[in-house]
Amino acid sequence: MSLNKARIRQLHSLFAPIMLLPVILTLITGSLFQIAVVTGKSEEFLWLLEWHRGKFGRINLEIIYPFVNAFGLLMLAITGITMWFQTRPRKNKSNTFKS
């Protein structure tokens, strides 16, 4: 494995476990709050919206939480797509035009 491939894998494996909790939390709280809106009970579940935005009781990350989520997901997407392109089999052009 080349040094570049190893670095990309390292970067991906670093970001994946860090981003797991924020992404799952954002996904679950956003979906559950939407269900509360559809059922007309959004007022009872405003705490879900606070968690979704990054406000966890006394810990208020609302200013940076969306950017952390976006940056982490972008890094995972870039490194994941890069690894995928690196593992795809390449066509052998020399064999395509032989008689």
Short descriptors:
99 residues; mainly alpha; two-stranded antiparallel ribbon; 3 helices; elongated
How would you characterize this protein structure?
- With 99 residues, this protein is mainly alpha-helical.
- It has three helices and two strands.
- The protein has a two-stranded antiparallel sheet.
- The radius of gyration is 21 Å and the shape is elongated.
- The mean pLDDT is 87.
* Count of helical stretches: 3
Largest sheet entry: 2 strands, antiparallel
- Describe the strand arrangement of the main beta sheet, using strand numbers: 1-2
Order of helices and strands: HHEEH
Q: Which structural class best describes the helix and strand composition?
A: mainly alpha
Helix residue percentage: 55-70%
- The count of strands amounts to 2
Average of the residue pLDDT scores:
87
Strand content: under 5%
The separation of the N and C termini measures 35 Å
Low-pLDDT runs of 5+ residues are none
Rg is 21 Å
Q: Which geometry do the CA atoms define? A: elongated
Protein topology:
Blueprint: H1 3-38, H2 46-53, E1 55-56, E2 59-60, H3 65-87
Outline of this structure?
The chain has 99 residues and is mainly alpha-helical. The chain has helices at 3-38, 46-53, 65-87; strands at 55-56, 59-60.
